[in-house]
């Protein structure tokens, strides 16, 4: 499964992102650009996250 996202938030930040969901692995990427003047704005932001899901019985929490 592939995901594509986009948005604009209350601090005037434009964001886009994409992700891939595999059986035990999720990979997400996002990009944010701050809309101030070129001399005063913050640097662009790139974020990558990786989540590994371990569902074997030895990794499960008790009581859930």
Structure in words:
- By secondary structure, the chain is mainly beta.
- The protein has one domain (2-53).
- 0% of the residues lie in helices and 53% in strands.
- The protein is built from no helices and four strands.
- The mean pLDDT is 82.
- Secondary structure tally, helices: 0
- Order of strands in the sheet with most strands: 1-2-3-4
Which stretches of 5+ consecutive residues score pLDDT under 50? none
Radius of gyration: 17 Å
Which word captures the global form?
Answer: elongated
Topology:
Layout: E1 2-8, E2 13-21, E3 25-34, E4 45-52
Antiparallel strand pairs: 1-2, 2-3, 3-4
Keywords:
single chain; 64 residues; mainly beta; 4-stranded antiparallel β-sheet; 4 strands; 0% helix; elongated
Characterize this entry briefly:
This protein is mostly beta strands and 64 residues long. The chain has one domain. Helix content is 0%, strand content 53%.
């Amino acid at each position: 499964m592939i995901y594509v996202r986009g948005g604009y938030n209350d601090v005037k930040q434009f964001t886009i992102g994409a992700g891939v969901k595999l059986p035990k692995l999720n990979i997400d990427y996002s990009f944010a650009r701050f809309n101030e003047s070129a001399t005063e704005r913050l640097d662009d932001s790139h974020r990558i996250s990786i989540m590994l899901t371990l569902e074997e019985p030895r990794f499960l929490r008790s009581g859930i």
